[in-house]
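REVIEWER CHECKLIST
Item 1: Sequence provided? yes
Item 2: Single chain? yes
Item 3: Sequence as submitted:
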Amino acid sequence: MLVTRSAVLRSEVERIAAAAGRQLLVVPDAAAAAPHWDSAGTVLVGSDVAELPPRRSAPAVLVGLDDDGLWPLAAAMGADRVAVLPDAGAWLAEYLTRSQAPDPGGHVLGVIGGCGGAGATTAAVWLAQAAAGLGARVLLVDGDPWGGGLELALAAEEEPGLRWPDLAGASGSIDPDQLQQALPEAGGFSFLSWPGSREPAPAIDDATTAGVLDAARRSYELVVVDIGRGLDAVRSFAWECDRLVVVVPAQLRAAVAAARLVAELPPADTVLVLRAKPGATVGHELVAQAVRLPVQGIVPEIRGTAAATELGRLLDTGARRSVHRFATALFDVDAAGPP
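Item 4: Structure as written out by the authors:
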């Protein structure tokens, strides 16, 4: 179903829906859409629509012809995805095709730092390692092309397999089994990293990112995404996640920075994980109030973690009992997490 009064947008979406083999019901506003919401497999909402019905079961994609202001509007409306047309036409056609699949696949968990140096990469690696230790099929995704390469923290830069540049320009559906077989492994889980080298990172468009994560979702029980803090990374990766974990040190400036970041995140289930590192100046309750998110866990402070990351020995620190307790506590409240 498409909700819009725009004839231009309607024409564009009709063409895409036809290419995806989907029937399209077009209604002018949210009031007219409400009776059909529960029966629609997917709802596309034009950027000219002011609001969504308060109750809905179908996922909603905000579609528009201008990128300006579309992402904040989507977050405010509670849309699940954003498609800027015509550039995202191929992605939207693929999304409509995938939405017909009966099995949504595994769970995608995004981890993002509320400020610089928050420890999101450490938390993401530890969560992936712990989930793999519990017997889940896990993929760790490097969602920060400017982060220096997640593979360096794993000492896995020599492991054979695909990296993000190998997937640049990939179009259409990606075979889940082939993706799983082609990815390198470390610490009991697969990973997809940007290269830990000085070579410039090629641009990966949103359609490719969505296709890779969709294939990953169908190959793995849990996909952990280490999301970079830039808006491009948030828009490319955070909007593909089922759940978001924001890592924040218990400090005033960190809480303020995290509050700004959270305003840019999609309306997914989002929780706060605190780092009570030495020098913490703000209580947990105050951080939660400032960021307006519930505190779901405390990242353990393990001496030598920073050095271990630099030396590629982060997996050694992840074997600690305190890390296991941190991860399992987070998984316990996540019904879609690992078994």
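Item 5: Key structural point noted by reviewer: The chain has a mean pLDDT of 88.
Item 6: Recommendation: ____
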